[in-house]
Amino acid sequence: MSQAGQRRPAAAPLTGLCDSSRCRTHHLLHQPVWQTAADNGTVLLASPRIPVGEKNRLRAEHERSMRALEEIDKAAARRDDMALSPE
What we know:
The chain is mainly alpha-helical. Helices cover 56% and strands 0% of the residues. Helix 1 runs antiparallel to helix 2. The radius of gyration is 17 Å and the shape is extended. The termini are far apart.
């Protein structure tokens, strides 16, 4: 089997397929990727060189990134609350 046809273990992430709208869990380890996407979106939306139509598409992607970051923050806060609560 060629290297491209080899299977990855089930635990390996599928690069580029992390989609907050499909994922019920949000993990802190994903935060840097979503933060980079949000930061890039902010820069591109501020650029006067980007056409209006493209900015509309970028705005939707930026909002998606921001929602994912909010969900990651909420999940981290819940995890912290659970760790601090007495059992």
